[in-house]
Specification:
This protein is an all-beta fold. It is built from no helices and eight strands. It has strands at residues 3-12, 22-25, 32-43, 49-56, 67-74, 78-88, 93-98, 103-113.
Length: 114
């Protein structure tokens, strides 16, 4: 079982169309597991924005139970970090939604081959 520590994802936001979240990481491939240590959200703009972060288990359709963060506010020119230790299995994926194109997302962690 090899473990690779890495930047799992980096993405600049797109404004969700009619509330549609954007895939940022995954789905996790067969034979892999992932531990997400930190998710950072950065607002590059000068005005406040809102964002959402959700985890979809094994390819599931969007559902309210999947949200880690829902319409959280982030001030202009600031960064919020979440240190979580999330474990993801094959088929799982992370989605984000932004009210502004000024948000950047970064996900750090490790992938484990199983």
């Amino acid at each position: 079982m090899a473990t690779t520590y890495k930047i799992l994802a980096q993405q600049t936001s797109t404004v969700g169309s009619a509330g549609t979240p954007t895939l940022i990481y995954g789905p996790i491939g067969a034979g892999l597991a992932t531990v997400v240590s930190t998710i950072a959200v950065c607002n590059r703009g000068t005005t406040a924005s809102t964002y959402r972060i959700s985890i979809r288990e094994n390819g599931a359709a969007e559902a309210t139970k999947q949200y880690l963060v829902y319409d959280a506010s982030i001030s202009g020119n600031s960064t919020v970090t979440y240190t979580l230790g999330l474990t993801l299995a094959a088929g799982d994926a992370i989605y984000v939604y932004s009210s502004s194109v000024n948000l950047s997302y970064q996900i750090f962690g490790s992938e484990v081959s199983i």
